[in-house]
Amino acid sequence: MTNGFRSSPQVDEAENEADQAEVGVFELVIPRREAALVPGPLRGGRQALADSIRRQLVSNRAVKTNPLKDEFGMIRDEVITLSASEGVTNAMKAFKAAYTGLNDVTVPREWDDKIRAFYADEFLPNLKKNVDGDPVLDVYLPRLIPTRYLQYHYMVQSPMPYKQKGQDLDRTDPSPYGEVHKRYHRGFHDFASRFGFEDVYLIDHETGDIVYSTQKTADLGTSLLHDLRLLVWAGYDKGIGRKGSSDRLQECDPLLLTRGSSSVSEETYQKVATVGEIPEGEGRAFEVNDRMVAVFLDEGEYFALEDSCPHQGAPLSDGMVCGKTVTCSWHGWKFDLGDGQWLDSPHTRVATYPVRVVGDEIQVAVPKD
C-alpha cells in the first residue's frame, strides 16, 4: 500500500515570515534613504533586534515542524503495521489471484467505447487543468485486459463523481474479483476515511500491478513498473515488456499493435506530399485516416511518425531533426526516427508508419481505425 504526502505549507510560511520580519525591522528602525546618517550604536541595536526576531521565528518554525514530522512518522508506522497484518496479507493474496484471472476474460468493444468516452469527457478535462499543453487521449487509455475490465466496472459504471467512486461501497462485478472486492473493500474504505488517506493501494511487488485501489481512479489496474498506456506504443511483437505481456494485450485495439509494420497493402499507401515540399532536416504534419502524421526528411531519407509526443502531446513535426532523431520542441524528448523509440527509455515509443517515394509522390501507410 502507498500514500502520497505533500510538502508542509506551515514550514514555508515560517520561512517567509522570518524573511519578511527581518526586512520589516530594517525599514522600521532605519529607512534606507537615511542609512548613511545612522550612528554606529543604532546600527548594532537594529541588528540585535533583527537577530532576536529571527531566532524567535526559527524557534516557531521548529515548534510547527516537529508535530508534522511526528505525524508523518505516525502515518508511516500505521501503513507498515497495517501492511504486515494477516488481514491485509490475505487480502493481497486474494486480490492478486483474482486480478491475474482477469487476463482470461473478454472485454467487449462496447465497454472500450465507454471507457474511451469516460477518459475524453471526464478524465482529460481535469488533467488539462494541471499540465501544460494538450494531453493526447490515446496515451492515457488503459490497454491491459484486467485494467480495462476493472475500470469499466468500478470507475466508468459507477454513478459517483470522479475521485469518489470508492464510496460506491456495494459495487461489484460478476468475476471472482467481485467476490474478493465485496469481502474487503468496505474495510479498506473505512480505514482510509478514519485515518485521512486519500487512497489505499494493494500492489503486487513483483509486477507492479495495482490490483486494488480504494478511490477507484485511473490508477486502478495499471502498473507502477510497466505503464502499458505508454509501452503499448512500442509494439509487443518486438519483445518489449515483461514476459507474457503480449498475451495480456489480447482484445486491445489491433491498430496499436500493428503500427510501424511493413506488412501493408498497396491500397494502404496515401500521398501526403510531393518531393521537394519537405525541406531537408525538417518535418511536416499531415492528416491521414483521421490521424496526424509527422513526415521528416533527414539525410535524404523520409520517415513517418505519429505527430504527438507521448509526454504532453506536443507536435513532433515542429521538433528539431538531426542524426536520424527528432527532439520535441516543448520539453526536449528525443525520438529515433527509424523505430520511434524515446532515447531515454527503451520502453516508450511513438508510432511509426511505412513511408515511400513513388515518382515524385511521398506516400505513407496508416491503417484505418
In short:
With about 375 residues, the protein is an alpha+beta fold. It contains 10 helices and 12 strands. The chain has helices at about 10-30, 40-85, 85-100, 110-130, 135-140, 145-155, 175-195, 230, 245-250, 255-260; strands at about 200-205, 210-215, 270-275, 280-290, 290-300, 300-305, 320, 325, 335, 350-355, 355-360, 360-365.
Topology:
Elements: H1 9-29, H2 40-83, H3 86-101, H4 109-128, H5 137-140, H6 145-156, H7 176-195, E1 201-203, E2 210-213, H8 228-231, H9 245-248, H10 254-258, E3 269-274, E4 282-288, E5 291-298, E6 301-306, E7 320-322, E8 325-327, E9 334-336, E10 352-353, E11 355-358, E12 361-365
Helix pairs in contact: 1-2, 3-7, 4-6
Overall description:
This protein is of the alpha+beta class and 369 residues long. It has 3 domains: 75 residues; 170 residues, no CATH class; 106 residues, 3-layer Sandwich (Rieske Iron-sulfur Protein), CATH 2.102.10.10. Strands 4-5-6-10 form a 4-stranded antiparallel β-sheet, with no helix packed on it. The protein has a 3-stranded antiparallel β-sheet with strand order 3-12-11, with no helix packed on it. A 3-stranded antiparallel β-sheet has the order 7-8-9, with no helix packed on it. Strand 4 and strand 5 form a beta hairpin. Helix 1 runs antiparallel to helix 2, helix 3 crosses helix 7 and helix 4 crosses helix 6. It starts with 8 loop residues before the first helix and ends with a strand. The N terminus is likely disordered.
